[in-house]
Specification:
The protein contains 3 helices and 4 strands. By secondary structure, it is an alpha+beta fold.
Length: 89
Amino acid sequence: MRTIITVMGIDRTGIIAKVSDCLYRHGVNIMDINQTIMQDIFTMVMLVDLKGANDSSDEILKDLEKIGKEIGVDIRMQNEEIFNSMHRI
């Protein structure tokens, strides 16, 4: 199952490392990643594959949200089909 993960917040060292380490521990494959910093605002969008994950999407999201709180960013996870439907013009 392909999923979109978005990360937004004030830029700081280690955001990508923390998020990607979490995904690695859960066995999630990062298929594509795009990140940018606009002044001091960090934004990242990841396309990931949960097919080989060790845990459920709910457990992964819970862990990502915990990391988000620790480092002061908002992390969201959404099924790719739902994401595409919401952002279709």
